[in-house]
Amino acid sequence: MAEKELIRLTYCSTATFPVQKYSIEPEIGRILVQCRKNNRREEIGGVLHFGNGFFFQALEGDRARVNKLYNHIATDPRHEDVQVLSVKTVPRRMFPDWSMKYVALEERIKALLHSKRRSNFNPYKFDEAFVDELLQLFVSAEDPSVEKGRGNDADAGAQGKGGWFKRLFGAQN
Ligand SMILES: Cc1cc2nc3c(=O)[nH]c(=O)nc-3n(C[C@H](O)[C@H](O)[C@H](O)COP(=O)(O)O)c2cc1C
After folding, report:
1. Ligand 1 mean position, distance from CA 116 (Å)
2. CB of 32 closer than 6 A to ligand 1?
3. Fold of 6-166
4. Ligand 1 touching residue 9 (CB < 6 A)
5. pLDDT greater than 80 at residue 37
6. What does DSSP assign to residue 160?
7. CA distances in angstroms from 64 to 8, 60, 73, 133, 150, listed in the order given
8. What residue ranges do the domains of the chain occupy?
9. pLDDT confidence tier of residue 168, bands split at 50, 70 and 90
10. CA 51 to ligand 1 centroid distance, Å
11. Is the C-beta atom of 34 inside 6 A of ligand 1?
12. What would the mean pLDDT of 165-170 be, rounded to a whole number?
């Protein structure tokens, strides 16, 4: 489908569940199951990062569909203080192969934050230029939840042979 108007909406929020310091957060896996099930149907893609107890997510797709999904996500009790950081009409997607890419990337994020003299990951303080820089970093990042070398197609997130997503949730469908 050619989108009527392709937009990228980026927002941040604060997790309401207790954050596990030293293990993979199972709630993230559950959210990714939902993303990868629903977003493809709506032709919505994007990227999700969870760090320091904060979510940072970009949603790309048709304006009406992205707005509808965002309004739905915003009511999810697993997070609060949901705040839009940027909404823009874009000529093309940054994450064309992903219904929802998950990025951990702690070291590279830390390096970028450090280079901007920011001490920790707090997306509420990001301006639009920094949001764009971070998204650029996410484009080239690997998704640790899926098997290496596979994108989101063919349900890699749910059915790929490797990655913690598969180990935690097994094959879906
Ligand atoms: C930070 C965060 C990001 C989410 N992103 C998506 C998403 O991209 N797509 C999606 O379908 N659900 C996403 N969800 C889950 C939705 O809020 C919701 O639980 C899901 O769509 C199922 O809704 P339903 O129970 O009404 O079917 C997200 C939840 C959170 C907390």
Report:
1. 31
2. no
3. Alpha-Beta Plaits (3.30.70)
4. no
5. yes
6. -
7. 12, 11, 14, 26, 29
8. 6-166
9. low
10. 18
11. yes
12. 64
Residue 113 tokens, joined: 């934050």
Spacing, Cα 91 to ligand 1 middle (Å): 25
Residue labelled with tokens 């997510």: 57
First vs last Cα of the chain: how many Å apart? 25
Q: Tell me the longest C-alpha to C-alpha distance in the chain.
A: 45
Q: How far apart, in whole angstroms, are the C-alpha atoms of residue 75 and residue 72?
A: 6
What is the arithmetic mean of pLDDT over 155-170? 54
DSSP conformation class of 100: S
pLDDT tens-digit readout, 48-68:
999 999 999 999 999 999 999
Has this prediction a pTM greater than 0.85?
yes
CA distance 126 to 33: 28
Q: How many residues does the chain have?
A: 173
Section 100-111 average pLDDT = 87
